[in-house]
Structures are given as C-alpha cells and as structure tokens.
C-alpha cells in the first residue's frame, strides 16, 4: 500500500531488526577504530580520526639522482603516541616532497597526499615500501653510489621510506646476523685470495676499496637479484653475492 507524505522529511532511520543490528555493528566498529585501546583503556593507537598535534617530529632526507638536475628533499613527520609511558611509539603521520624541479609537481603532490592518508589510517603501513620499490621507469633506472640499482625515482622514495621506518622501529634492521656476516666475510676473503695478483708490478684490478660510506666490490661484478647490489661474482663454479651472501647453489 502506498503512503503519501505531506510533510517534509527531517530525519529517517532504518527499519527492520536486521538493518538496525547491522547499523549498530557498523557504528561500534567505527567507534572502535576511532579510538582503539588495550584492556586497561589507556593505550591509544594510530587511526584516521586522530587529530594532528600542533608540533610533530620530522626527518628530512636529501635525494639526488642522476636523472634530475635538482635534488628532492623528502620530509616525513611522525606523531608520538602515548608519550611518557611504556607504550610510547612513534608512527609516520605525513610526508612532504620539495624540489626546484617542477616537472614532477603533479605526481609529487598526488603521491604525498595518498601516502599521508595511508599513514593516518594506521595499521601496517610497511607495504608501501614494497609497492614503491616495485615501480620501474620505462626509460631505465640508475645506479646509486656503491653499486645499488634504483629502477626509478619512485623506487628511491620507497627506499627512503624504508630507511625511515627502520629508524623509528616499524621495520627490523637490515643488518645481517653474526653467522651471515661471518659467511659473507669468509666468501669475500676467499674470492680476494683467489684473484690476488702474483706479479708485484701488476695493477690490482680487483680492488675492493670503499668509496665514502658505501663499499665497492670487485671489478666485473654483476648485479645481485636479491639485494640489487653489483656484488655478484663467480666462486667455486657458483654465482655468489659478496654483499648479502646469496648464492645460486644454496
């Protein structure tokens, strides 16, 4: 039966018990995500409705690539949750990228807004690192000092985000454990011994001296598919990485 409405509608509500229960469940979930707490009701976690404090801690990283004449400065601001308690944590809240190169202005603004929204959403935001590092430039990538290959500028930004997340403790350290370090050092010494020049007047073409803070590896090394470092050499009939220890022979 049709019902004629003669007055303006000022409010409405869902009808039926199932619809009402569904609305209550959604409201309860929204409230829980807006202010997630532990059993003692004191631990505040990151969520999208968390208000921005007037002051945030920030870290700025300089990115200078050979594909651009101007450097980019990546600033990531962090919010401190539960300060002064045993539950104090530092989480990324927003990201800004500044550069004199205006060719990338549009995608820089779009990318930073999306990433900032993901940061504020809370939860596990570390997936951004893998997503950004998987972006390839169709015109080709470039090499960082030390022999690490960057497939694109976006991948370099992913590398910066990874460094920052390790810095604030959201990602574990990249350092090899003691056993892995000993294995890599042993393989590197074995390779250097096998390639050592016997002629005292010959040039050492297999020098492994460091350049700045980045180690360099023997001439003729190939790029490792695991760590993207030019440190892959032939040892005992097997391709072995002198940086991360990865070996094609297991």
Account of the protein in words:
By secondary structure, the protein is an alpha+beta fold. The chain is 30% helix and 19% strand. The chain has five helices and ten strands. Strands 1-2-3 form a three-stranded antiparallel sheet. It has a three-stranded antiparallel sheet with strand order 8-9-10, covered by helices on one side. A two-stranded antiparallel sheet has the order 4-5. Strand 9 and strand 10 form a beta hairpin.
Q: Helix-strand pattern, N to C?
A: HEEEHHEEHHEEEEE
DSSP, total strands = 10
- Cα shape: elongated
Give the DSSP E fraction (strand runs of 2 or more residues): 15-25%
Low-confidence stretches: 33-40, 198-213
Q: Which class best fits the helix and strand makeup?
A: alpha+beta
Please give the alpha-carbon distance between the first and last residues: 76 Å
Largest sheet: number of strands, sense, barrel closure: 3 strands, antiparallel
Q: What's the pLDDT, averaged over the residues? A: 77
**Helix count?**
5
- Summarize the amount of helix as a percent range: 25-40%
Nearest-angstrom radius of gyration? 27 Å
Summed up:
By secondary structure, the protein is an alpha+beta fold.
List keywords for this structure.
three-stranded antiparallel sheet, 250 residues, alpha+beta, 19% strand
């Amino acid at each position: 039966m049709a019902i004629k409405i003669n007055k303006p509608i000022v409010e409405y509500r869902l009808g039926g018990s199932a619809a009402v229960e569904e609305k209550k469940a959604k409201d309860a979930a929204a409230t829980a995500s807006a202010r997630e707490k532990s059993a003692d009701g004191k631990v505040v976690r990151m969520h999208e409705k968390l208000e921005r404090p007037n002051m945030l801690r920030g870290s700025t990283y300089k990115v200078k690539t050979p594909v651009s004449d101007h450097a980019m400065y990546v600033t990531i601001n962090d919010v401190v949750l539960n300060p002064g308690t045993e539950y104090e944590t530092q989480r990324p809240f927003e990201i800004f990228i500044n550069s004199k190169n205006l060719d990338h202005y549009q995608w820089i603004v779009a990318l930073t807004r999306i990433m900032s929204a993901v940061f504020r959403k809370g939860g596990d935001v570390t997936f951004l690192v893998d997503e950004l590092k998987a972006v390839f430039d169709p015109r080709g990538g470039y090499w960082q000092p030390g022999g690490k290959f960057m497939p694109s500028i976006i991948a370099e930004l992913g590398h910066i985000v990874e460094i920052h997340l390790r810095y604030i403790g959201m990602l574990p350290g990249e350092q090899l454990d003691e056993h892995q370090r000993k294995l890599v050092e042993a393989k590197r010494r074995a390779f250097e011994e096998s390639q050592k020049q016997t002629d005292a007047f010959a040039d050492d073409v297999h020098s492994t001296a460091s350049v700045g803070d980045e180690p360099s590896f023997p001439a003729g090394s190939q790029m490792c598919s695991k760590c993207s470092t030019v440190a892959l050499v032939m040892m005992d009939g097997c391709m072995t990485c002198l940086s991360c220890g990865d070996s094609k022979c297991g």
